[in-house]
C-alpha cells in the first residue's frame, strides 16, 4: 500500500455520514452506535484519506454473519487483525477508502481509547499539529511501507492515547451523576 498523507478535507465528515447510513442498513438492530474515528475525524488534521468508522454492536458475531452484505458494498473482512474482539473490514483494497473497526458494546477499553484519542486531538491542537508533522515525515520516509509508517507512529500514539484516556476520564468521568 502506498502511504499518502494529505491536507484535511472538509468532505470527510460527509463521506463518513454517507457510509454510516449504508452500514446502519446492514447492521440494523445489532447496532448500538456508530462513530467517525481516526485522523479524518479531527478537523484540520492531515491524514491518509481513509475514513475510519467504528460501529459498536450488541453482538460481534452478528457482524460476521453480515459478510455478504459488506462484500456487496466493496468491503473485505479481515477478522480481528491483531485486536481481540474487533472485526476489521476494509474497502478499496490497496487504494483503501474506508475501514471499519467494529466492537461489541462491552469491549469498553478499545471503544474508549478510540473515542478518547479522537476527542483529545480535537481539543488539543498542539498535539494534533505534532501528530500531523510526524505522519507527514513518516509518509515521506516510508512511501511504500505501511508497516514502517505504522511502526513510526506507534510510540507517539501510545503516549497520546495514555494522556487522552486520563484527560477523558477527568473530563467525563466525574460529571456523570444521576
UniProtKB/TrEMBL annotation:
<dbReference type="InterPro" id="IPR043519">
    <property type="entry name" value="NT_sf"/>
</dbReference>
<dbReference type="Pfam" id="PF04229">
    <property type="entry name" value="GrpB"/>
</dbReference>
<dbReference type="InterPro" id="IPR007344">
    <property type="entry name" value="GrpB/CoaE"/>
</dbReference>
<protein>
    <recommendedName>
        <fullName>GrpB family protein</fullName>
    </recommendedName>
</protein>
